[in-house]
Write a structure and sequence with these properties.
single chain; alpha/beta; Rossmann fold; Coagulation Factor XIII, Chain A, domain 1; 2 domains; six-stranded mixed sheet; 8 helices; 18 strands; 23% helix; ABC-type transporter activity; cell membrane
Length: 422
């Protein structure tokens, strides 16, 4: 059976312009430079114009090829800047590739960002009919689905209000409902669902699963690996604009999370922080997993001691710092959270000094796989720093006694137990 989507050597190039700027420009400089350029054009009318900018080529996609069959539910994953959104825009016919081709059979409904496909001056009702017409549906077909769309989006009270007055959540609810209910052959959804609340996200995942079960094709981009694994059977992994892997979703997710750029990462000073409003007091600058001998490693055996060397920089004199350590599976399920203050350990530092801390988790029986660490700093229960998925590590071998537990049904933490008759 021929694929419903066939991508061959797809590439997309952008030209980035960098404006040349001086450190400090006065009004006198602006007037003088303008006069100089004008005079030069009078004296040398055919000379090339002086260029105040430089150009750089950026390949958002480079030689990407894959096939997708009808009815497949495919998760597209990769780090920020990997080319996911560019790929979906090409498949949605929003932008043209620089080279290569994408062959698509059937009508496509896409939801790539808040506002896609809606006219802000039209009402919700009018936009439903407009989107249906764009998809090639007759008025009778749209009308037969109208009540379902409105009920799913839960926007009955605002149906005759211009969508420019909708909140971002209402906008996404209606846009997704239109895209999913007007029976496209291919449904493309980007990370935009993150705008909605948890209950609506759950509804959306259920609807996409239903669409796939009806024999239609779904492409889904998300950084939530649990959602990707639950919905999708296959995955596409992009890395720096190139295709890294295509295949079963479990294999693709594990490859993504075991990427060398994630595992064993040490310097974290420039990593994005979760938002907080307490000023720059202290933050993590380095973290590395180490074995029992203090040697840096990227993997452990199940059942052995797991330890981490942490480094914190204090920007003012502080005391009473509590460290929060969260351990997650590669599917973003929390296994455990430990707080230094609960173990009786609070830390102090002078201004512009570094604190080096070792955290040891003895005899940690984890199932083989990839795990990630989230770190936080608190003082008087106020968050001073919070870095999510700061580092990943592997557990690559299970202890002999627990080898029969190497199965999803047993869970990820293989706890020791003691039994006795009463």
């Amino acid at each position: 059976m021929p694929p419903i989507i066939s991508v061959e050597n797809l590439s997309k190039k952008y030209i980035l312009r960098h404006q040349k700027q001086e450190r400090y420009t006065t009004l006198r400089d602006v007037l003088a430079n303008g006069a100089k350029r004008f005079t030069n054009r009078l004296i040398h009318p055919f000379a090339a114009l002086e260029n105040d900018s430089t150009h750089e080529e950026f390949w958002a996609l480079k030689d990407v090829s894959f096939d997708i069959q009808q009815g497949d539910r495919v998760g597209v994953i990769g780090r920020n800047g990997a080319g996911k959104s560019t790929l979906l825009k090409i498949l949605s016919r929003i932008t043209e590739p620089t080279s290569g081709r994408a062959s698509i059979k059937g009508r496509v409904a896409s939801l790539l960002e808040v506002g896609t496909g809606f006219h802000p001056e039209l009402t919700g009702r009018e936009n439903i009919y407009l989107n249906g017409a764009i998809l090639g549906m007759s008025k009778a077909e749209i009308k037969s689905k109208f009540d379902e769309i409105v009920a799913f989006a839960d926007v009955e009270k605002f149906l005759d209000t211009p969508v420019k007055r909708y909140s971002s959540g209402m906008y996404v609810r209606l846009a997704f409902s239109v895209a999913a209910h007007l029976e496209p052959d291919i449904l493309i959804v980007d990370e935009v669902l993150a705008v909605g609340d948890a209950q609506f996200q759950k509804k959306c995942l259920g609807k996409m699963e239903e669409v796939g079960n009806d024999g239609r094709t779904v492409l889904f981009v998300s950084h939530n690996m649990a959602s990707i694994q639950k919905l999708c059977g296959n995955g596409i992994l992009l890395r720096d604009g190139g295709l890294s892997d295509v295949g079963a979703i479990e294999k693709v997710i594990e490859l993504y999370l075991s990427d060398s750029s994630l595992i064993g990462k040490e310097s974290i000073g420039d990593m994005p922080r979760a938002r907080h409003d307490y000023g720059l007091v202290a933050k993590f600058t380095n973290v590395s997993p180490v074995n029992g001998n203090g040697k840096k490693v990227v993997s452990f055996k199940s059942g052995e001691d797991i330890a981490f060397d942490l480094e914190i920089k204090a920007f003012e004199k502080v005391d009473g710092l509590s460290i929060v350590f969260g351990l997650d599976t590669y599917m973003d399920y929390r296994i455990t959270t430990v707080l230094s203050e609960e173990a009786g350990s609070l830390f102090s530092a002078d201004k512009d000094s570094l604190i080096s801390i070792n955290l040891k988790l003895p005899n940690l029986h984890l199932k083989p796989g990839v795990y990630s660490v989230t770190l936080g700093i608190r003082r008087n229960k106020l968050a001073l720093d919070h870095v999510v998925r700061v580092i990943s590590f592997e557990v690559n071998e299970i202890s002999t006694n627990n080898k029969d537990h190497d199965s999803a049904k047993y869970g990820d933490l293989l706890t020791e137990s003691l039994w006795r008759l009463l």
